[in-house]
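User: Show me a protein chain along with its predicted structure.
Assistant: Here is one chain, sequence first, then structure tokens.
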Amino acid sequence: MNIKLFEYALLSLTRRRTKHLFIFTILTLLLSISLSIFTISNSIRQEAEYSVNNLPDITVQKQIGGRQQYLDEALIDDIIVIPGVLSATPRVWGYYNFEYLNTNLTIIGLDPFDPDMSKTLTKITNEIDTSYIINEKSIIIGEQLHKIIKEIYNKDEFSFQTPSGDYITLPITSTFESASNMLSTDIVLTNLSSASSILGIETGLATDIAINVSNPQELSTITEKIENMSPSFKVITKDQIIAYYQNMFDYKAGIFLLFFLSSLFTFFMIVFDKLSGLTNEETKEIAILKSVGWETRNVLQVKIYESVIIAFTAFILSICLSIFYVYFLQAPGLQNIFMGYSYLKPHFELTYKFDLNLLITVFFVTIPLYIAAVVIPAWKAAITDPGEVMR
């Protein structure tokens, strides 16, 4: 690196500080917004992946006319004999409309004979023992939901209206704060009997059946055998659910990516137009430099130094701003776009996830283009005859 040319580039930036400051500010804002959006998406995706990783290998549902129906628990006897099936457990769960907040609660019935569910719930609820509510008519809910119920009713119990119109009042015996806050916000844990009564599910029926396999390589074979049992069965694998979440977040991030690329294209068009029409002062400066012995490559070196200083400083600053906005301020405004709005919207801290590929992608999409937008107009001016310019 030529130190003298670098010093001259710094002086050139200070002499035309207004123009360069404007470009620096716009570039920093564009990079900060784009990095913030993709960082939020990655953090929420990481939270969602933690949730779905605790799901069973296969979930069997029954659908008629495109609507989910309840399954007969006797179906388990046919599934458990399939080679490779490790366990098959009926699950009772569903959604209860909490009209006061215009939102849905997720009712989950705990099965005392399902060791996988007990182990998973113990894991995601930070080691809280859920066994004592299995044989009691009570509920365990998330801390946020408990706080709302306490503010509304001023008591530690909740009355559920069943589909038949009757009311079931269950005491709140405990609250939990899940290791994954996306899980803990609207979940209500109770025993199978209470869950069935709240949701109006008859005895002997289940919402779906959770299946775990001993060998993941046999997953497709087992799935095919279950699908062949009845045309009304819908078999969902864990990988399909993970792919759904991946596509959902990629779709939302893709919308912002389209917006970012459009804004970026507009920005570079403005920069190129602004710099391609060099002012008389800038054109004469290049001509004078050529007259006193500068070569074209020296002029281009100065312009490259100028653009690199602006671009790299903007890039580093945008990384710092995006980290501060996302992880210290918790992305006010943008987080709601990904999570949606609800009175029981999950309140969790976005976890830091360093994504080198993201930084490399944003860098090579923006920085080389900006440098080219600066250097090309300067090159055109540098190859022009100095005498013609001065005349």
